[in-house]
Amino acid sequence: MEFGIEAIALLMGVAFVAGIIDAIAGGGGLLTIPALMAVGVSPVQALATNKLQSSFGTASAVVAFARKGRIDFRRFARPAMGAFVGSVLGAWTLQRVDPAFLAGLVPVLLVLMVIYFTFGPKASEEDRHSRFGPGVLVGIVIATGFYDGFFGPGVGTFLTTILVAFFGMGLVSATAHTKLLNLSSNIAALITLMIGGHVLWTIGLLMAISSVAGGQVGAHLTLRVGGKMIRPLLVVIALALTAKLLSDPANPLTAWVLKLALGGP
């Protein structure tokens, strides 16, 4: 598949902005996946190519956080492995099942996340006591890894919220460890989709260059500004992703609401 200069420039610019957003709050796929589809890439190819470029950007953010000592690799080794396994299963399933039904569930989860960050207790910059043990964390991460490999939008936002709400992590720490888990699930999904022959390598690698630069910018902004920026951006990203998903008339939740409004059975 060939792309013109204008399309390449557009995709690289979108990847840079998405890299910044991903490093801070997650949700960069909200920009890159529609951009890829807008230039004629099929949905599965868009998801696969997005995994390629976002893997580089996420790795860049992980390196930036690790250099500042913000990632506990020993504690999160097992969760990272869980994310990898879950994502492989999700990406394998993606190639065999229509993921459209998830588009109806995700907006509900995102709205719940917005409610938590808007009306829940203010997230601290410091880690607190975890409500659950490491086994529960691994189980949750396997499930979110499956979602990331199968569908993907909002997984970084979900993980950050989970680490803050249930595992007592401060916002910056939760964001840093979310990047590690994202990297593991991204690589797993990429390998699985690569084997299936769905990755567009040329455009994916060009976007990766921009994504790496964006990931570095986003990680440094997070470390410098902290939770003051992360919390509102999480809410904005969640609302934007909800609006994007619900704007599609084919979304199961949107179709159900329209049917009720029109008085259908």
Automatic annotation (TrEMBL):
Stored InterPro entries: TM_pro_TauE-like (IPR002781), TSUP (IPR052017)
TM region positions: 7-25, 76-94, 100-119, 131-150, 156-175, 187-209, 229-246
Alphabetized Pfam families for the sequence: TauE
Keyword vocabulary terms for this entry: Cell membrane, Membrane, Transmembrane, Transmembrane helix, Transport
Domain of life the protein comes from: Bacteria
GO cellular component term of the entry, any: plasma membrane
Keyword field contains Transmembrane: yes
Subcellular location: Cell membrane
The keyword Cell membrane is assigned to this record: yes
Membrane association type: Multi-pass membrane protein
Family per record: Belongs to the 4-toluene sulfonate uptake permease (TSUP) (TC 2.A.102) family.
Protein name: Probable membrane transporter protein
Species, as recorded: Lysobacter concretionis Ko07 = DSM 16239
